[in-house]
Structure prediction request, 751 residues.
Amino acid sequence: MSAARTARRRLGASVTAVLAVTLGAGLLAPPAGAAPVTAPAAAPQSPAAGITVPNDLHLVSAGTTGFLGYRTVGDVPEYRWTSHLDGTSRVLGPGAQFFGGRSDVVVERKETQNRFALHDMSVPGSAPVNLTYGDSRYGLAGVAGKSLVMSYRDHNGVLDVLLMSAPSAGSTSPTTRGVALPTDARLQRVAATTTDTALLQYARGTGSATTYHLAVVDLATGAVVETVSTGTTQPRTGVFLSDTLVSWITNPAGTAPQLVTVPRGGGGSPSSVPLGASPAGTQLDLALLGGWAAYTLKGGGVSDRSSVFHPLTARSFGDDGTVRLLDHVDSTAPAPDGSLLVRGGSLARGEGVFRVAPGADGKPVATLVAGTGTPTRLDLLSAGVPAVADLDASGGRATFTWDLTRPNASGTVTLRHTATGRKAVRSFSYQQLGAASRLTFDWDGLVAANTGDPGGFASAGDYTWELKAVPLNGIGPELSRTGTFEVVRKAGAHDYTGNGSPDLLARDSSGRLFRDDTVKVPSSSEVYSAGRVQIGTGWGIYDRLEAVGDIAGGPAPDLVARDSAGVLWSYLGKGDGTFAARTRVGAGWKAYDKITGGSDLDGDGRSDLVATDTSGVLWYYRATGDWRAPFAGRVRVGAGWSGYNQITALGDVAGTSRGDLVARDTAGVLWLFQGSGTGQFAARVRIGAGWGAFTHLVGVGDADRDGRNDLYAVGPSGSRLYAGTGNAAAPFKPPAHSSVNSDAARFDTVF
Prediction:
């Protein structure tokens, strides 16, 4: 042992009281022989009104005139001192760590340095006192009052502990006092729980022979004035010292946490009481407040676990039971006046820093001294929901955000179409919220009738959003908020539901009409149906059914149907997947063997109709936009069309912005006729052979949502989507498989 250490050890005598810890049930009785417990004096200063601190502030220490806290900005801790006197919350110097221990003195240590600066925060603007201990092997173990607890273990395992404080008058060297702990001790914790003493926790021995001890150290002299053995069980985080008691929380294997108190001076027996079930590994904190012991699981406000220890609870040493002071605790710091500062919150008063001290009747009360402006209950701060979501302009997607008061929550967000009830539901956990407590829903524009159903694209119209979230720490009720927004989009060709994606219509042999809402998402080449819906019966009276686009200026595309007498009828789309009652267009349509519509052939923005008569002449009917008389008189286009067994209006597939046609000849060759914009067509261009395998060719519109019109082909061997290229020489990409109308054999018409 060094001479210096021997000299320091002579500075204080150790009074050791080795006490057996007896665990028992029942109320916590006053320890035998203990002096009467009195309430601490009130704080000498009243807190300034209206103090505000950041919501993510964590307490480090508390003094008489203010408190030290920190928050993380980026990856860097930001320390600040908040004054009770003037209400300021001042950020301290960057690039340093700051410590405190129950006083107004804040200790600054620069990173990677063993030099310290003592700041007296009760005197704003005062110069710091710089301290450097000559032996760089000593490191900072903790701060108690205005003293730094320094420790060093040499290569032989010998521990040396000293107290270091500001130089005395007339000196430039720091004042040091040796602390005579056993040389084989392993220092574990420094607690500053009274103004003139520190509580040092240490261990001795190894393995099963390890014992744990609490040393009460006089800060003025460094003398160990009392030592208490806690046995072979290590105290939990909470260790505390008052003028009359030493107390700690222990949790022997297989037992509930125990609150243990021992009278100071060695004149009484220990007393203990179970605190209730505790989640494995939890670390409870402890403070003595007059005749009460307050305990809590710190971090409850940001934990994702529910625990009965999240509240700050005070238990009487007498028979007054327990008092719930706060609903959760983030961090605590004992103050010089005997009170406890707590960064926490309650459902009634919100988040902030509270001073907890005995009230007039002796029972502890929590008084708010600095608020954060944030409620403790899980709540919605703001909703980033657009009033109008234009899904056509945004590529079919929309982003919604909701900012919550805290991240420890899980739940669901639902977007629901008011008219149909179809919805998009997303579950979220606290991992998705992140530290910013922001929920982001990047909506892909899909909705479904029920969970597990194939999703279809969202229709235009009114929507509600609903956010439900459960606080994972069990504090407060479930959050439930709703709001509204609108989806707008332009109805495209074959889009009868106003959701921006084409619908295919099909009639079976019994005259029932069905609609399949097609879906093509970027992650898959396949086209699928969002669900087949029967939309009517009695359609067997017609021998020709054609989707002809929007001919009447309504909200959705329309269709025409010819009966056996040659009368043509129009059915105007209502935009909800159904059609209005039929309107008679006119008689004499029996002369035509092929009818098709959906291409704007004259550039007026309306879909026109063409038909071939039995002699092979092609006729053009311009749409008027008037549902009562939807077509103008016919105009002859030209003869020679009898060689084709199917013609299909596609809209623009050649990249010219004019409506085009494709026609299949009897040999199965498909030809492209580019529209001129005047109701006429350019010379045909051969697309390819083999198209005779299909029974129906449908100008379905933009099925793959790339801005170009596509061709849908249906046949006994299955359905295919031929995506448009915008290139007249090769107008279609290779076919993509589709499950829509894979049962085409049951239908006599697909359009």
